[in-house]
Design brief:
There is one protein chain. The protein is mainly alpha-helical and about 100 residues long. It has helices spanning about 5-45, 60, 85. The protein contains three helices and no strands. The model has no long low-confidence stretch (mean pLDDT about 75). The longest helix has about 45 residues, at about 5-45. It folds into two domains: about 1-50; about 50-98, no CATH class. Keywords: Signal.
Length: about 100
């Protein structure tokens, strides 16, 4: 067997697995729809607020409800203790325009 034949067999196997991953994802989404509807109903009944993005710092839990200086609660030049602070941009000064 030539090395080009080995490459073609491996490429075909990888493409088959790649396609199977999309089929598995579609099956998983279809299975999760019922649970998602139940969670949406629970959020409606309990009157929950914003989505919690991170569980670390109070200014990354609910960005719409964070004050501007909570990230610098120790002092203005303090390094951020939590990695989520580098993933979330600082809040807008005037708030979002609606």
């Amino acid at each position: 067997m030539r090395s080009s034949d080995v490459f073609l067999v491996l490429a075909l196997a990888m493409l088959t697995l790649f396609g199977a991953s999309f089929a598995d994802a579609a099956r998983g989404v279809a299975a999760a729809r019922h649970g998602l509807a139940a969670k949406a109903e629970m959020v409606e009944q309990l009157g929950l607020t914003d989505l919690v993005l991170f569980t670390e710092a109070r200014y990354t839990r609910h960005p719409s409800q964070a004050d501007l200086h909570s990230a610098f609660q120790d002092h203005p030049f303090a390094l951020d203790h939590f990695p989520s602070g580098s993933l979330l941009p600082p809040p807008l000064l005037n708030g979002p325009s609606s």
